[in-house]
Amino acid sequence: MEPKREGISVAALHHQQPAFRGLDAGHMACPGCGQALGARLVTEAIGPDAIIANATGCLEVFTSMWPRSSWRVPWIHSLFENAPAVASGIEAALKAQGRQTKVVVMGGDGGTFDIGLQSLSGMLERNHNVLYVCFDNEAYMNTGVQRSSSTPHAAMTTTSPRGETRMGKRHLKKDLLAIIGAHRIPYAATATVAYPSDLRAKVRRGIEIEGAAFLLVHSPCPLGWGHDGADSIEVARLAVQTGFFPIVEMERGVVAGVMKIREVRPVADYLRLQDRFQHLFEDSREAREELQHLQELADHNIEVYGLRADEPHPRDSEGADTVRRGGMRWS
Ligand SMILES: Cc1ncc(C[n+]2csc(CCOP(=O)(O)OP(=O)(O)O)c2C)c(N)n1
Ligand code: SF4
Q1: Disulfide check for 78: which of 18, 83, 176, 203 has CB 3.0–4.6 Å away?
Q2: Which of 134, 221, 276 to mutate to test the pocket of ligand 2 (most atoms within 8 A of CB)?
Q3: Does ligand 2 lie within 6 Å of residue 137's CB atom?
Q4: Cα 172 from chain centre
């Protein structure tokens, strides 16, 4: 007899599983790791005919602990500095062989915003037919939560602590999308693990277009951000709904689409869930000023990208339920 759970057919659920997943179970990520979920969703959308170049970082480490590997597609670990250069070479070789295999780079924000930015810029400028995916957890997590140029202003990391005179990181998060946009590549976008259909659609778009594509995926890190692993999706969703992390698409450097927010939430709703922002809720003038500053940064995003809407975005209604169901069927 077919097993049933809470009135749901297990066979029907099985059918909804992806037909192919390039990153499989059995890796060593922390529970609730946004990057692990993000990489799983990205590989579901890419399909089996792909080669991945992975810069150093958590993803590389937790998926490839000797003698095991969680990858089911050809995968190469590159340095921070050269993952896009390695991918460029792979793409050129495949082109010479007349093969259609997709080439994808994956890297963290440290590898993308900072250390590998030079070779990424070269790859984009030459317009290689490669999709670059940055899993943005807003710090160097793998080596102990050091600040990167992607760390938000006022966030605490081990190298930007709350001190006697400092309220966490002093500088602003680098506007990487603007830098990527300046390369006028065919397609660039932001996405988040909180909206899986949107993420997968952008991955499909990125690999289907001819030329370079870039995707910045907001990926909560329970260890580095200091939230419960079970809250990762909620945290990621609040980043969008407060305007803190805008979801946008660019074609040739021009904004071509945004995920509008029907009910804009105060930025404190997002910050309060994370230990890295707890000092902003102290009873002090400095804390109030920084909180106000972060609210202004979110308001700025909402205004610049025109994020406020009366109607929800078609993909704004889903969330954890899709993830729990086990994803989509790849065809
Ligand atoms: C040139 C260089 N500098 C420093 C390191 C040490 N290192 C290894 S992983 C890592 C952190 C990676 O951070 P990020 O790219 O943001 O990825 P995450 O671990 O956060 O996913 C660092 C600094 C290195 N391997 N190479
Ligand atoms: S430290 Fe953060 S990014 Fe690394 S595996 Fe753990 S949750 Fe994921």
Answers
A1: 83
A2: 221
A3: yes
A4: 19
- Cβ(111) – ligand 1 distance below 6 Å: yes
Atom index in ligand 2 nearest the CA of residue 36 equals: 8
DSSP per position, 146-205: B--TTSPTT--BTTB-B-SS-BS--SPPP-HHHHHHTTT-SEEEEEETT-HHHHHHHHHH
As a whole number of angstroms, the distance between CA 175 and CA 63 comes to 29
pTM of the model: 0.91
Taken in order of first residue, the domains within the chain and their CATH numbers are: 4-312 (3.40.50.970)
Question: If you average pLDDT over residues 24-38, what whole number do you get?
Answer: 96
- My answer on whether omega of the bond before 31 falls inside 30° of 0, hence cis, is no
Confidence of residue 329 (pLDDT cuts 50, 70, 90): very low
Predicted confidence at residue 15, as pLDDT, reads: 67
CA 63 to chain centre: 17
> Tell me, what's the pLDDT at 77?
97
pLDDT tens string 35-68: 999 999 999 999 999 999 999 999 999 999 999 9
Q: Which atom of ligand 1 is nearest to the CA of 107?
A: 15
